[in-house]
Design brief:
75% helix; mainly alpha; 617 residues; 3 domains; 30 helices; globular
């Protein structure tokens, strides 16, 4: 019985969003309400652990109560939009009861989805509303429970606010697109092309994992899901060629996490960034390209040093199929991505572009009937997407409660206006923001961590960057990307390390050891956000000459950092190599082009001398 109900709900949710994307949306209350109502039902039936009967029944009851409350809102839409005034009209007993039910029920479902961290944050921030006359910038006059419910339940500032709007307008469709692309077989094509490109080099399977995860991760939008997709193939191959289990899992976790940062899709954070910054999605994706390339360059180097350290030799791979033969037999599976990019570049909305790209997945799959998507594949894609949408809808709705609190109390504005009180140096401020981002990202999806920080850390960081001379628009872009980067990396780092847990399960390695080594593999990437704040050209916030200079400096910085950190116990990297790398890194990080150029010259001269020495001896 559960499978037909689950499939029916998933079809209803998927077709609802396809209709909106292709033909236009409904009233915001209807669109967000139907989205959340169907999502919580799917969550209770599909994701909740059915072996725990009490929790399962509570989740069913909570989802039904949320659904009924949303039905009441839709039926009373005219009254809510024209018959009462937000923050002014007192709540009726019915509104107070339904608002309380929705707040409590959605917190319960969120607890079942991601654990206690996010619900606890919501409870703390909610309690803040009711405590007046606090010291310093936390001071406010205090707010009533009715006003709190008004914000959270009846307006577009809380549960039904911007985060849920982005989930209902963008994220749901792109999750559906990713599910259809996965079921069509695109992941296999990407792995096959990556294997053909780098599989025969030293550490080939690990490098295949890096490349394939970069492309499949941008479609799936989820690091743990990416690990399960590509890691089931790449991790056993890495172990077979000589990588220890924990290294195999760590490499896959680090590579899959980077998929969230890789354009054109970048998971759900790109759409949230577009909504909160007012910058178009296609522009956000373009700005993200250079930092994403630097991330994977750092991971690729760590993989190569690991192969040298463990004495892993190149392996023979089946190279009978050329690139042309691979693309001729399965290349049509990637055409929906081309459709998506072309439509976005030509100015169509992301909803419209992805809706027709989803339809094109079915069309292109039938170019080769033997590889065509059948009804079972389509049904599985809808069910898979339904689960992903449900998870995101529940977590973004709860994250919206925090945004609602900040909007009610005005704390975000206060933090931005008083940023000068917290100045302790730009580097220290960035370091503290990084730590906060990693802490807030524990156990929650990157999108939720980012939403929380839109209200908490980003306003302060924008103020600090403006104080240090950045143009206001550049400061906004740098601050949002800085936080987004570390919110994404939080799924990799211990103690929660969701991507590392998934990889450890496949590699059969200790979870914490895998998480520590995954952080080590991606550690070079932790300097990238500092680089693009210091050198905004990496986010295309400069003219072409400056962008090329900043990109060159960043490549050298990533390489030198990788040599210093990962180059030990490798016979081909000597002490003097690391010393030179440290000197070059120090010179190119200083904000003077002449000194940067001197560092590059020293590095090039050292490499030339080393090559000549090796040749003559």
């Amino acid at each position: 019985m559960e499978r037909p109900v689950e499939l029916t709900l998933a079809l209803a949710l998927g077709l609802f969003h396809l209709w909106i994307g292709a033909f236009g949306g409904f009233d915001a209350s209807i669109q967000r309400g139907v989205h959340l109502g169907l999502a919580v039902l799917i969550f209770a039936l599909s994701i909740e652990d059915k072996t725990k009967k009490f929790q399962f029944r509570l989740s069913i009851i909570a989802s039904v109560l949320i659904g009924l409350s949303i039905v009441w809102k839709i039926l009373n839409l005219e009254y809510l939009s024209a018959g009462r005034f937000e923050f002014v009209s007192p709540l009726t007993p019915t509104e107070a009861v339904l608002g309380t039910i929705v707040c409590v029920s959605i917190l319960w479902l969120c607890f079942r989805a991601v654990g206690w961290v996010l619900p606890a944050l919501v409870i703390v921030f909610s309690a803040y509303c009711f405590i007046p006359d606090l010291p310093g910038i936390l001071n406010h006059r205090g707010y009533t429970y009715d006003l709190f419910l008004d914000v959270q339940f009846l307006t577009f500032a809380g549960i039904f606010g911007i985060p849920l709007s982005v989930s209902a307008s963008y994220i749901a469709l792109f999750i559906l697109f990713g599910a259809f692309m996965e079921r069509s077989g695109l992941g296999g094509l990407i792995i096959e092309l990556a294997n053909r490109a780098v599989g025969h080099y030293r550490g080939g399977p690990a490098k295949v994992a890096v490349i394939s995860s970069a492309f499949t991760g941008t479609i799936s939008g989820s690091a743990p899901a990416n690990v399960m997709t590509t890691g089931s193939l790449t991790i056993p191959l890495m172990k077979k060629t000589g990588y220890p289990s924990h290294w195999a899992g760590a490499i896959e976790a680090a590579a899959s996490t980077g998929g969230i940062l890789m354009p054109p899709i970048m998971g759900s954070i790109a759409f949230l960034m577009a909504q909160f910054t007012g910058i178009s999605y296609i522009t956000i994706a373009g700005l993200a390209l250079i930092p994403a390339l630097l991330y994977f360059f750092g991971v690729f180097l760590a993989v190569h040093w690991a192969a040298l350290r463990h004495g892993i030799q190149p392996v023979e791979v089946d190279s009978s199929d050329t690139y042309w033969e691979i693309l001729r037999s399965r290349g049509h599976l990637g055409l929906p991505l081309v459709v998506l990019i072309v439509l976005l570049i030509n100015g169509y909305s992301p909803q419209y572009a992805v809706s027709y790209s989803i339809v094109s997945v079915l069309f292109f799959s039938w170019l080769r009937p033997s590889q065509a998507m059948r009804f079972a594949d389509i049904a599985d894609a809808f069910v898979t997407a339904g689960k992903g949408i449900a998870f995101v809808a529940v977590t973004t709705a709860v994250a919206g409660m925090i945004v609602g609190v900040f909007e009610l109390t005005g704390l975000a504005v206060t933090l931005a206006q008083t940023a000068d009180q917290f100045v302790v140096g730009l580097f220290t401020s960035l370091l503290l923001t990084m730590i906060v981002s990693l802490i807030l990202g524990m156990g929650v999806p990157p999108s939720v961590s980012y939403i929380v920080q839109v209200a908490v850390t980003i306003p302060m960081l924008i103020g600090l960057l403006k104080m240090h001379g950045l143009h206001p628009e550049t400061a906004i872009i740098c601050a949002h990307f800085f936080v987004m980067y570390y919110a994404s990396l939080a799924v990799l780092t211990p103690p929660d390390a969701l991507a590392s847990i998934a990889a450890a399960g496949i590699a059969k390695s200790p979870v914490m050891k895998t998480a520590v080594y995954a952080t080590r593999v991606a550690f070079v990437a932790f300097i990238v956000p500092f680089l693009f704040v210091l050198r905004p050209g990496l986010l295309l916030q400069a003219d072409l000459d400056r962008i090329l200079i900043d990109f060159s400096v960043a490549i050298i910085a990533v390489f030198c950092t990788s040599v210093i950190l990962e180059g030990y116990r490798i016979l081909t990297i000597k002490f003097w190599d690391k010393l030179c790398a440290a000197a070059v890194l120090l010179l190119i990080l200083l904000p003077l082009d002449s000194i940067n150029f001197m560092g590059m010259i020293i590095g090039l001269v050292y490499l030339l001398v080393r090559k000549l020495w090796k040749f003559t001896n």
